[in-house]
Amino acid sequence: MNILEQLRTQLPHDHILGDGIPEVGKGPKKKSVRRAYIIVLGNIKGGSGKSTTAMHLSVALVDRGYRVGAIDLDGRQQTLARYLENRAAFARNRGIELPMPDIRAIPPSNLTQALSERNSKIQRFGRALEELIFQNDFVVIDCPGSDDLIARICHSFADTLVSPMNDSFIDLDLIARLDPESGEFLRPTWYSEMVWSQRKRRSTIDGHRIDWVIMRNRLTHIDAHNKRRMATVLQDLAPRLGYRVAPGFCERVIYRELFHKGLTLLDLTRPGVDMPLSMSHLAARQEVRNLVSSLRLRRLDEPSAFLGTEGAGTGASTAAA
Ligand SMILES: Nc1ncnc2c1ncn2[C@@H]1O[C@H](COP(=O)(O)OP(=O)(O)OP(=O)(O)O)[C@@H](O)[C@H]1O
Ligand SMILES: [Mg+2]
């Protein structure tokens, strides 16, 4: 089963993927359909940096010449969509061009019944994905930190799942339960089990192994002992829970300042932007670049990555440079 058939099985109404969608998996057309590589920002923990990272990743990929679609699934907050609105306004006001992903937001509907609202949201997500998946090289999805069907569906579509995590044992507790005395691993949490089951599901659907990447966010220069302990524990847990650790971002005020202008750290030296560039900003920009490199992303344009072919999207391995 390829990714579109997967979408069909998961969405409540088949017709969502009806008109205009190339038939995949059947006939000679299948080899000419290329889909985008999907990166999901997900973590059950709120405020861990999902939207900030989604924004920086999207802009970094456009900057590298890729066509990028973005979906803001966090209908209530719409941080990513708002961030990009601010960016468009900033570019307009300054009369400059800034690299922009093609964004779709999924706001809450005015349906009162929870089930209708859920189905409507899933349908609109399907439509957004369907609009973006064949037009772009990458689709970046900002998934809200909630435990619901849409979050589970969203995770199952990830080719790469990036989970930003604040550098604290409170955040780690949402990934793994540890013995308070010895620090030994006790059991996975609801979230890591959910990721595990979506990976299993995905692997049976199209053979893809979701590349789960945890990035530490808001690293501070103080509390070096805690920082080192977190690094050790995260590395030790990685093979057990099936993720890899990527370089993260330090705690920096600039992240909060950039939102209103719709800018990322990669924009500071662009003509017309005129933002002061300190040593700290340079270091932060390098952190973003390091993260992007560590994700080893590239377009799914090998034969094995085409929809409907054997071994489609063999995941991290085909995405890895
Ligand atoms: N490295 C960082 N340094 C300083 N502030 C940061 C950093 N990363 C994110 N923030 C700030 O933390 C807040 C939460 O970040 P963000 O909105 O990206 O998290 P989120 O995981 O998307 O949150 P939510 O779960 O509410 O959607 C924002 O104000 C953001 O500017
Ligand atoms: Mg968010």
Automatic annotation (TrEMBL):
Gene3D superfamilies, per the entry: P-loop containing nucleotide triphosphate hydrolases
InterPro entries, per database record: DNA_Partitioning_ATPase (IPR050678), MipZ (IPR015223), P-loop_NTPase (IPR027417)
Pfam family membership, one: MipZ
Protein name, entry field: Chromosome partitioning protein ParA
Provenance organism: Oceanibacterium hippocampi
Gene: parA_2
